[in-house]
Automatic annotation (TrEMBL):
InterPro entries cross-referenced by the UniProt entry: AKR, Aldo-Keto_reductase, NAD(P)_OxRdtase_dom_sf, NADP_OxRdtase_dom
SUPFAM superfamilies (alphabetical): NAD(P)-linked oxidoreductase (SSF51430)
One Pfam family in the UniProt entry: Aldo_ket_red
Listed GO MF terms: oxidoreductase activity
Name assigned to this protein: Oxidoreductase
The organism of origin for this protein: Pseudoduganella dura
Amino acid sequence: MSNTPRTTWQLGDRTVNRLGYGAMQLAGPGVFGPPKDPAAARAVLRAALAGGVDHIDTSDFYGPHVTNGLIREALHPYPAGLCIATKIGARRDAQGGWLPAFSREELTAAVHDNLRNLGLESLDVVNLRAMFSVHGPAEGSLEEPLAVLAGLREQGLVRHIGLSNVTAGQVRDARRMVPIACVQNHYNLVHRDDDGLVDMLATDGIAYVPFFPLGGFSPLQSAILSGVAARLETTPMAVAIAWLLQRSPNILVIPGTSSLVHLRENLAAASLVLPGDAVAELDAIAATS
Ligand SMILES: NC(=O)c1ccc[n+]([C@@H]2O[C@H](COP(=O)([O-])OP(=O)(O)OC[C@H]3O[C@@H](n4cnc5c(N)ncnc54)[C@H](OP(=O)(O)O)[C@@H]3O)[C@@H](O)[C@H]2O)c1
């Protein structure tokens, strides 16, 4: 692990800052319905861009349709360098449950919904979100949904295809069918099942975008993490972000927050360099958990 992380990486045909922003937390509780204060949510989005973010992760199943609407209201017309990555492959039921939506009709409708709700003529990156299991990546063929997505790309509605919640085998199979711009799986300094996949993708120049980079709905807690943060006079979340940035140059970090204070703290983590002894201590958290 290098301790002088590069600041940008390729996402499809764009070069983006490695510290981006995940918009999921802007929807209402349980990622369902609108937020209590939509103006505050829009302010977070504007502050993210003002702070140098040029990669936003979203989906029309956040809300549903809520975060995309907030992004359009806050940021449209979009600055030229902004890359918005979205996801398809799931839908919400009336109670907010998450269901697969993998049919040709559902995938096609999802691309058109994202285009309309974001106010775009083509989507920069569309991740196909696998839903074979609610607990994480699971075996299953992505061939049919990927063929649908490849067709939408040929029509010019999608510029780059990514994968989410997938196994290394599914990534390999998908790459035989279409170019894959990025992989978005659960990964952070405690949850490191994808260590091998991160390194494999780095070798091929493909972005790896961890979801739950700070631990998700229950942010990471560890005495070691708190100890390292105290020693470096920063916060545990800043250390968690810096650890990801130092872990591999192809990692794009998309911490989610609905708070301006947290956003600023997260953006500041881009300049935090962890010394080797701190990295070794942090690596031990996953090894022992
Ligand atoms: N592909 C997928 O299946 C998938 C799944 C989940 C997420 N995602 C994407 O990944 C992005 C990131 O994941 P996430 O937002 O779920 O989880 P996360 O970034 O790991 O953590 C977000 C949580 O951390 C809190 N937080 C953020 N900054 C903080 C700080 N500086 N100090 C203390 N707490 C802080 C947030 O609360 P506050 O709002 O109070 O700051 C929120 O509760 C999402 O926004 C979404 O775009 C994708």
